[in-house]
Amino acid sequence: YKAQGVVEDVTNRIVDHIRPGPYRLDWDSLMTSMDIMETFEENCCVMRYTTAGQLWNIIAPREFVDFSYTTSYEDGLLTCGISLDYGEVRPSFVRGFNHPCGWFCIPLKDSPGHSLLTGYIQTELRGMLPQSAVDTAMSSTLANFYSDLKKALKT
After folding, report:
1. Which residues contact 135 (CB under 8 A, 6 or more apart)?
2. What is the pTM of this model?
3. What is the pLDDT of residues 120-140, one digit of tens each?
4. Contact 117, 14 (CB under 8 A)
5. Can you list the domains of the chain with their CATH numbers?
6. Fewest CB within 10 A of the end CB: N or C in the chain?
């Protein structure tokens, strides 16, 4: 999946809200928990997070364990990740898997104070799910992601 939108804020502040850390749980309505399991350097960690059930719980809550890395990219920032086979799956969760994913955030040259945020998401939710349910959930999740992020940045 690819998601793209203009966000009214500077790249550093936007990426600070997306990457693993204290802001993410405050605004991301899909995410229900996040733990940094290991930190390798300031912008590099292994995190475990859980997501809420979706589509009236047709899609049960999921757990992911991802390696995450954030770095400068051209004039902006890139935060990327990939799932790891790490630790035991907790009861009442299905372990999902993220293939290489990333969010690119670059400033708009013609509009200071605005940034272009582009996400590439390759999520395998796993479990017995019809692809149409996954596609429906992903489209609403990504729309809510931008909406929730924009609200959080205004505070």
Report:
1. none
2. 0.90
3. 999 999 988 888 888 888 888
4. yes
5. 2-153 (3.30.530.20)
6. C
